Amino acid sequence: xxxxxxxVTGGAGFIGGNFVLGWRRDRLGPVLNLDKLTYAGxxxxxxALREDPEHHFVxxxxxxxxxxxxxxxxxxxxAILHFxxxxxxxRSIDGPAAFIQTNVVGTLNLLECALNYWRSLPSxxxxxFRFLHVSTDEVYGSLGPEGRFTEESRYDPRSPYAxxxxxxxxxxxxxxxxxxxxxxxxxxxxxxxxxxxxEKLIPLVxxxxxxxxDIPVYGDGRNVRDWLYVEDHCMAxxxxxxxxxxxxxxxxxxxxxxxxxxxxxxxxxxLDERRPRSxxxxxxxxxxxxxxxxxHDRRYAIDASRIREELGWxxxxxxxxxxxxxxxxxLAHQGWIxxxxxxxxxxxxxxxxLA
Length: 355
Known about the structure:
Elements (H helix, E strand, L loop, with lengths): L5 E4 L4 H12 L5 E5 L19 E5 L5 H11 L3 E4 L6 H6 L1 H24 L3 H6 L1 E7 L23 H20 L3 E6 L1 E3 L8 H10 L4 E4 L5 E6 H14 L5 E4 L4 E3 H15 L12 E4 L14 H7 L7 H14 L1 H7 L15
Parallel strand pairs: 1-2, 1-4, 2-3, 4-5, 5-6, 6-10, 7-9, 8-12
Antiparallel strand pairs: 9-11
């Protein structure tokens, strides 16, 4: 028999943490939360759930087969939502091996354990079970000035991070087509919002601006990303889990393309309004253009028509309102930033070791 529990991997990270917080806020069922607690995963994000008896946190690695097997048999989850991943492109340039270990080897172990567990279930429970793999638009490579990624776009990963996620996607599809495991894959655009580790663009800009430090912008700043507010992403994942077609892939995007320099300048303008510099000058004066990231993809954009037409999902937040909410959250939670920034990362430039 299946319980109402869902197993969430990487549920102390940015997207996974937001998903778990929203799931438990809305009382949608028990959560078994497995996270390795690397630098970007931390229990501070889950502080609101410390007294929640239906949130069970386990500190562990998805590549630990005995642990994963035991958790599946003990908790009998009805679904696995797989967020756990090394996810920062710059870090993958400096050290790709960790990305292969977690994103490829770890995913393979999780799939093998899930397959054995699924096969052990009665027929009705097998029909209900789902393995939802959360991936990225970076697997598709780089777009020119026109067009958008669809679910049929050719894979063309350009960074070690993107290559590791592409491999994971292929493994998930292979386990569905070869063994029948009921999987669904989502590929999302750039997420932003509360609890994002401050190595990513938006929280990094906020923190460096407030600290009075240079705000680095790669290359000419005209690389384009499609931005997706994290709460909108989490709502899309709920829909995919509930109604998505087995074996299908769904692209999830915010329909909010922006050049990086436009995003940075807008953050500076919001900070000028909300927390002006003591000298009265704009935070935009701290912007500095720096040498580009090796292999930096020029443009990403998601065509989310499939999830819109099949499942009825649309983002609730446009980029302006989402960015305002994000800036306000970081200004109100500087204590969270201070607690998650340990000695492993101090807002420095990464991704140059192999350049």
